[in-house]
Hints:
Largest sheet of chain A: none
Distance between the termini of chain B: 48 Å
Structural class of chain B: mainly alpha
Structural class of chain A: mainly alpha
Number of helices of chain A: 13
Order of helices and strands of chain A: HHHHHHHHHHHHH
Helix content of chain B: 55-70%
Number of strands of chain A: 0
CATH topology of the largest domain in chain A: MetI-like fold
Radius of gyration of chain A: 23 Å
Oligomer: heterodimer
Radius of gyration of chain B: 27 Å
Distance between the termini of chain A: 9 Å
Number of strands of chain B: 0
Amino acid sequence: xxxxxxxxxxxxxxxxxxxxxxxxxxxxIAPGDPAAVIAGDQATPEDVAKIRAGLxxxxxxxxxxxxxxxxxxxxxxxxxxxxxxPVSQMIAQRIEPTLSLMVVTxxxxxxxxxxxxxxxxxxxxxWIDRVVMSFAVLGFSVPVFxxxxxxxxxxxxxxxxxxxxxxRPIKNGxxxxxxxxxxxxxxxxxVYIALIARITRASMLEVLxxxxxxxxxxxxxxxxxxxxxxxxKNAAIPIVTVIGIGVALLIGGAVVTESVFAIPxxxxxxxxxxxxxxxxxxxxxxxxxxxxxVLINLLVDVLYTLLDPRIxx
Amino acid sequence: xxDNLARPLTEQDVVVARELPDILEPKKRRSGxxxxxxxxxxxxxxxxxxxxxxxxxxxxxxLGTVDPSAIAPSKRTRAPSxxxxxxxxxxxxxxxxxxxxxARVSLTVGFGVAFFASLIGLVIGLVSGMVRWSDGIIMRVxxxxxSIPPILLAIALMALTRGSMGNVILAITIAEAPRVAxxxxxxxxxxxxxxxxxxxxxxxxxxxxxxxxxxxxxxxAPIIVQATYICxxxxxxxxxxxxxxxxxxxxTPSWGNIMAEGRSLWxxxxxxxxxxxxxxxxxxxxxxxxxxGLRDALDPRMAKRI
Lengths: 313, 306
């Protein structure tokens, strides 16, 4: 197994290389002249030339990519055009809120979505199933910021149960930290819950048709342990996969959720960077999130072998 | 037991089947559009709502709207009333008119991205699946692209270009096309194993004919289903891009940028966000329903599973 894990880790290196290559090529894929766009409408030709040189657009692609790649490997993501600070430093300052938001969302989503999917599969073709599935379709159809405003309007403005906006660092106490994260996490978790619940239901339906489930029923095993011990364990692989893949939704959604709830995390950093046309920051954030996403899916692959000893690569 | 079986059959052993009509009512199957709608309610409802949205987009000037960019500073942020059905925004523009015209942007982006992403993904997936030596390289690049969360990819591209509808469609297409390419490649690889494809190759069928006669027709169903999901996700992505200021400039009303303008006032004037949100969610819901319905109708094996 350790051999497999080692090989799997080695396999992520070329993927990360291609991610880096692609993120870097965005400067060349984008239509029009990126330097002129970043410089803004009032820029003089000298400004544009300066930015072009700063982005390295005046030198050959491969030379520039090699240089950039080596600097990224050393943790140097470039310098912000607006503040002049190193991008890696600006990202490091903003990691805590985003990480908190995503971890809380992950926990809420998993604890809500999996029971939902299991119950929907158990009560297949009843009204419970239909309610869960309707929720799932709805979750895919309402943009995350709309959910955010709806929840904030209902639970913060009208009912006054939770804070409207803002973030409290965890070092100032766990409850204030958590209290501020409940609404954003539920908002961000909406699509994620829909996705996980849908796959859980599908995977459970498949497993519940197996012979050993019928045998367990015949033995008189209780419904609860059939569902959660016999079936869920064997339905776990697709569920774990989609939890990993869905992190992409969480990352994209975090950018928006942080804007709605005024959380000073990486999402806010990105949105502010868009308004200031501060491309090095956007590039750095995209690269970092993509690496995290690759690592999470590496973790998922490793989890497979723990969940299902039959899997051997 | 054995003796019983060995004796010749008597009258009582033979169970005479009753005539079929007594047991099974002949299944009434309505024909025509109504029958289709009853058999596939998801397609009917989704398609119906989508049709209404198309009509709104097409007939926006005739639906009692005023100029969506007409500014009236004295009538800013009015609540919904007889004059302003959906209220007015920070510049006094009529939100009802902006929402009606906004349908054009969302539908164009959704269907534009669905079309171009499917087309590009189809070509890349076909090449990857049919041309053996290219598969490794193409799939590595696609793995790399798919490791970038699509919204971030679109944001990064929009940060490098001017906000316009064409650029938004391009950015979301680049973010969505790898998914189609991977789906198409998977289908091609499984179709290649089919005996009829082997037979066609053995009969000397040339590559273009092989693709257009034998591979493509069998791929249409999954691509159409995938295209509807891409359409839904593109409309959501457009609204997110516009919402964070990386999308379509406010001079062209889109459901996303109407909501973006209501952002700072949402606590006191929630209606600015509410109306475009309802229209956007309804449209995306309709497209998703249509996708689910098409999936069940085109691939009955998948029906009711996911």
